[in-house]
Amino acid sequence: MTDRIRINLRQIVNNEERLAPGHRLCAGCAEPTAVRQILHAIEGPVVLSTATGCLEVSTTVYPYTSWRVPWIHSAFENASTTIAGAEAAYKALKRAGKIPEDRQITFVAFGGDGASYDIGLQWISGVLERGHKVIYVCLNNEAYMNTGIQRSGATPRGAHTTTSPAGEVLPGKTQWRKPFTRIMAAHDIPYVAQASPHNYRDLMMKAKKAAAADGPAVLNVLVPCPRGWRHESDQTMAIAKLATDTCYWPLYEVDHGKTIINYKPREKLPVTEWLKAQGRFRHLFRPAYAGLLQEIQAKVDEEWERLLKEEANS
After folding, report:
1. pLDDT tens digits, residue range 186-245?
2. What homologous superfamily is domain 9-312 in, according to CATH?
3. Which of 159, 175, 252, 307 is the most exposed place for a label (fewest CB within 10 A)?
């Protein structure tokens, strides 16, 4: 268990910046905030792999890079196996005596929800099944934002995207999001967590726990996208907080099989408070879709109640 880990916030914020300023991610994008928080929390040398997506293309516009640590990109789907290969090479070099035994390196892969929920799912599963000591981070903005806001397996029901447009026939995406965090936890790996950058202490604590885990770890981090979610850039963290206050995006962890909910709102807000803050759901507030709003609320309530039961039974 990793429950004894503590963070010294003053020490963490004074760590070296591993993602340099001047990257080309959009104003208000939550991805660089989440990445900086995670990398500030991890002590010692870090090696990164990044899947194709917003983070990759915006931080490595040739001939420039925003990364101040070793960084690898190969393809959309295989950031997890790329970093697993680096971790395996590190172990082999240790066995050969070419790296000191006490030299500790943390291996981290970043992928968007398209690279995680969809294109790279089987690759991630293989890495977890083989037991590589790596951290996989899903930066979840709930669509393929880099290529034009297409729906992904993480896109919520009712969301308008370019491939699930809201119109006279369909109310946006017709399917519910894929339960990625639960799928990861079902691999029985040491550590899995859901987080959000608006609660920086919670996310940074989870990053430290992931780094300390005795095997694979996965973080699923909600990162609002002003461009795709259709909200003002200064509302990013407020909307991230609304996701947790409505229990649409619970903050919880599964530590060696034990489920722990890290935040329980005193007053659980209706999910409409989160939906109405985003232009991608504007159409749902027409009278014709009142029933769909009720269905979405019922699904959020069902998932929250299941999570409460899982915690009680852990």
Report:
1. 999 999 999 999 999 999 999 999 999 999 999 999 999 999 999 999 999 999 999 999
2. Thiamin diphosphate (ThDP)-binding fold, Pyr/PP domains (3.40.50.970)
3. 175
